[in-house]
Design goal:
- It is a single chain.
- This protein folds into 2 domains: 41 residues; 234 residues, Purple Acid Phosphatase, chain A, domain 2, CATH 3.60.21.
- The longest helix is centred in the N-terminal third of the chain and has 22 residues.
- By secondary structure, it is α/β, with parallel strands linked by helices.
- It starts with a helix and ends with a strand.
- 40% of the residues are buried.
- The strands form 3 sheets. Strands 1-14-2-3-4-5 form a 6-stranded mixed sheet. A 6-stranded mixed sheet has the order 6-7-8-9-13-12, with no helix packed on it. It has a two-stranded antiparallel sheet with strand order 10-11.
- The radius of gyration is 21 Å and the shape is globular.
- Helix 1 packs antiparallel against helix 2.
- Helix content is 24%, strand content 25%.
């Protein structure tokens, strides 16, 4: 970056005297330098709050506040203090429920220690998680045991009933698509609103319409690098258009978060880390 900045400044000075292509080239290099600095040093440290208000029944009687995060990717990119700030932000949001969509670590299971602030987040209705592909690649048992030790319940291929102000909610968790064995045969009670937690959106290709009222996914990171009008450059999914935000996939209402951490490259552009605040109508 220093070399690019030096040449951009030299070209800018040359352009002032010579004009023409030197000035255009200098401007182009300065824009590239800005984008590089934004993507590597600024945007990965930002934390966006996205809010989704979604009725799960026709005439909701109560609204439950939940927080959904995924792809924490605790590794070499973000410091423990950054994650501590994230947990503090979640506590300030005051959720009744916390849902974690997998990929707690990347590269080495020892990095799970960076997430120990999770223990201090205590939503009244509990904390639930599923495993992601990087959890499986590192050490799924070590990740599972440590996250459970911080008070979270493993929802992988399981379901759990919750009662909130007299209304019922069912949580269902799907195993990871690539390395796990997702159970697609769960049968829902149509009288009970159901939220499904799945690391990858690809699981929806094997789910049936009506199996859940809302599916929460991660994995795609929104592509990490996005451009105006073009969108994401690379989407690690069979569902190339299902990279972020609210979608209806296979007849199932779905929200895909851009995630918290990064993978492969330490960069994000027009795609900051995201905490999703859900208002679920029951």
């Amino acid at each position: 970056m220093s070399v690019m900045a030096f040449f951009a400044i030299v070209l800018a000075i040359a352009g002032l005297f010579t004009g023409g292509y030197f000035l255009w080239l200098a401007g182009f290099m300065l824009v590239c330098l800005f984008l590089l600095a934004e993507g590597v040093f600024i945007e990965p440290k930002r934390l966006k709050i996205t809010r989704l208000r979604r009725p799960l029944v026709k005439n909701p009687k109560v609204w439950l506040k939940a927080v959904f995060i995924a792809d924490l990717h605790a590794g070499s990119n973000k410091s423990k203090s950054w994650y501590d700030g994230m947990w503090n932000k979640i506590k300030q949001l005051g959720p009744e429920l916390l849902l974690i969509g997998g990929d707690c670590v990347v590269g080495d299971p020892k990095f799970i220690d960076k997430l120990d602030g999770l223990e201090k987040v205590s939503p009244r209705l509990g904390k639930y998680f599923v495993l992601g592909n990087h959890d499986y690649l590192d050490d799924p048992q070590a990740v599972k045991e440590q996250v459970e030790a911080w008070g979270c319940e493993d929802l992988t291929n399981k379901s759990h009933g919750i009662k909130f102000q007299g209304q019922d909610l069912r949580l269902v968790g799907m195993d990871e698509t690539l390395f796990g064995k997702p159970d697609f045969n769960f049968v829902r009670d149509p009288s009970v609103p159901t939220v499904c937690l799945s690391h990858q959106a690809d699981n929806l290709l094997d789910m049936k319409e009506g199996q859940a009222d809302l599916v929460l996914c991660g994995h795609a990171h929104g592509g990490q690098i996005r451009f105006p009008l073009i969108g994401s450059v690379v989407v690690p999914s069979k569902l190339k258009k299902a990279d972020m935000g609210f979608r209806v996939i296979n007849g199932l209402p779905t929200f895909i978060t851009t995630g918290i951490g990064e993978v492969l490259i330490r960069a994000r552009l027009f795609c900051p880390p995201e905490i999703v605040v859900l208002e679920l109508g029951l």
